[in-house]
């Protein structure tokens, strides 16, 4: 019984919807009453070139719109679109100035079956700014990666001029252009679109680039890793005791036509004048790059480390003798507390040598009462050689300690 009631209610609801639809269709198509509505329509700005002669330019004129109040039959107003109207604002008809200007809007065309009720009161606010021109660099940004073993070089593009409102043009730092080089293995002829960009890479509106596109060739060349050959006269002219000049980075990537770079295994440096090297730890020298060869991700210079042949020198030192493994049963006396030694090593090592870097000691673990001859143990740092030593052993006199009048066993 409950199911029949529910089915009955559903049928009633469906009938109500159908009745409403029929009534709406009747009113809309038969009665078709007059109605008034609003529509937002864009406004075209005319004669911008005339204000440019006064070094002025509109700001954001592309976004100008007005709201029209239109009247017509329900069917006509329902189907109306903004593109059915043509509205213009003519800058040549009024005296304009820098800053905000209120310019009337004229209806050039509109549908004949509707009436604009507010066409006598249509205005737009147009802001004018000083016209500015400047040249900026072009930055080409590559998307993706070339085929393995190849490298795409940024084409050389001259600076381009941008024009527009002063505030907007001053924000422009460069013209950006993006292009995909994915899987490229040969030169690319590209047509790139130029976009005025600020320092953060954000596109700046209202700025004109003419032309807005540019045809360029993107060179894509084969890559090869080669060594660096240092050219100098070390063997012939070496008054500064230079051992060698070694590149800090001994490999470099080059690119070029495959038949050219296949015969190149190293790049020479320019000849190095050793008179300009003395006293330096590192130097920077130019590479000799053959014609048709380009350096990849690198400048045309390399840094070299200057290694010297340090001559050996000697140094006299007086060392304090330390005792180790003292026996608590004995009191000891050394016949000397000093030892003099002569050491040898490379000049820079010897000059930095300190007495505290050397250990000199005698081991008392095996002494007996009376006189003992204990050998000296001198421990030197790496790179230091002992030349001579004035004594090799120390005479140590040991006596048993006495506690409350008794010998200590």
Descriptive account of the structure:
This protein has 4 domains: 32-131, RNA Polymerase Alpha Subunit, Chain A, domain 2 (Beta Complex), CATH 2.170.120; 137-218, RNA Polymerase Alpha Subunit, Chain A, domain 2 (Beta Complex); 222-308, YbbR-like domain (RNA Polymerase Alpha Subunit, Chain A, domain 2, Beta Complex), CATH 2.170.120.40; 312-407, RNA Polymerase Alpha Subunit, Chain A, domain 2. The protein is mainly β. The longest helix is centred in the N-terminal third of the chain and has 30 residues, at 2-31. The protein has a 5-stranded mixed sheet. Strands 2, 5, 8, 11 and 15 form a 5-stranded antiparallel sheet that branches. Strands 10, 17, 19, 20 and 22 form a 5-stranded mixed sheet that branches. Helix content is 14%, strand content 47%.
Topology:
Elements: H1 2-31, E1 34-46, H2 48-52, E2 56-59, E3 65-73, H3 74-79, E4 86-90, E5 99-104, E6 106-109, E7 115-116, E8 123-136, E9 138-143, E10 150-152, E11 160-165, H4 166-171, E12 174-180, E13 188-193, E14 195-197, E15 208-209, E16 213-218, E17 220-229, E18 242-247, E19 251-256, H5 258-261, E20 266-268, E21 282-286, E22 294-295, E23 301-308, E24 312-320, E25 322-324, E26 330-334, E27 338-346, H6 347-351, E28 359-363, E29 370-375, E30 377-379, E31 385-389, E32 393-400, E33 402-403, E34 406-407
Parallel strand pairs: 1-4, 9-12, 17-20, 25-28
Antiparallel strand pairs: 1-3, 2-8, 3-7, 4-6, 5-8, 8-11, 10-17, 11-15, 12-14, 13-16, 17-19, 18-23, 19-22, 21-23, 24-27, 26-32, 27-31, 28-30, 29-32, 33-34
């Amino acid at each position: 019984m409950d199911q029949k009631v529910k089915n009955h209610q559903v049928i009633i609801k469906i009938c109500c919807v159908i009745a409403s639809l029929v009534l709406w269709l009747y009113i809309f198509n038969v009665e078709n009453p007059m109605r008034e509505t609003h529509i937002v329509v864009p406004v075209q700005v005319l004669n911008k070139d005339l204000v440019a002669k006064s070094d002025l330019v509109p700001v954001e004129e592309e976004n100008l719109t007005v709201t029209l109040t239109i009247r017509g039959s329900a069917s006509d107003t329902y189907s109306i679109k903004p593109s059915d109207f043509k509205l213009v604002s003519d800058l040549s008809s009024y005296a304009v100035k820098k800053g905000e200007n209120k310019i009337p809007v004229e209806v050039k065309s509109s549908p004949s079956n509707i009436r604009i009720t507010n066409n006598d009161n249509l205005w737009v606010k147009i802001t004018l700014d000083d016209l500015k021109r400047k040249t900026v660099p072009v930055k080409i940004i590559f998307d993706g990666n070339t085929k393995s073993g190849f490298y795409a070089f940024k084409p050389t593009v001259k600076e381009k001029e941008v024009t527009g409102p002063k505030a907007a043009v001053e924000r422009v730092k460069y013209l950006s252009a993006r292009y995909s080089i994915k899987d490229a293995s040969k030169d690319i002829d590209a047509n790139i679109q130029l976009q005025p960009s600020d320092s953060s890479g954000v596109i700046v509106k209202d700025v004109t680039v003419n032309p807005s596109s540019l045809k360029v060739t993107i060179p894509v060349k084969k890559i090869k890793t080669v060594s660096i050959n240092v050219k100098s006269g070390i063997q012939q002219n070496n008054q500064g005791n230079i051992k060698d000049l070694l590149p800090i980075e001994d490999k470099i990537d080059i690119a070029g036509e495959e038949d050219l770079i296949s015969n190149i295994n190293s790049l020479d440096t320019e000849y190095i004048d050793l008179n300009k090297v003395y006293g330096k730890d590192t130097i920077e020298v130019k590479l000799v790059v053959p014609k048709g060869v380009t350096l990849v991700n690198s400048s045309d210079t390399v840094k070299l480390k200057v290694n010297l042949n340090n001559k050996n020198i000697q140094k006299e030192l007086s060392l304090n003798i330390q005792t180790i493994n003292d026996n608590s049963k004995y009191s000891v006396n050394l016949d000397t507390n000093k030892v003099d030694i002569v050491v040898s090593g490379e000049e820079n090592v010897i000059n930095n040598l300190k007495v505290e870097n050397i250990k000199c000691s005698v081991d008392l673990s095996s002494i007996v009462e009376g006189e003992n001859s204990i050998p000296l143990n001198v421990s030197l740092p790496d790179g230091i050689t002992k030349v001579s030593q004035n004594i090799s052993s120390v005479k140590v006199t040991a006596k048993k300690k006495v506690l409350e009048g008794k010998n200590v066993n």
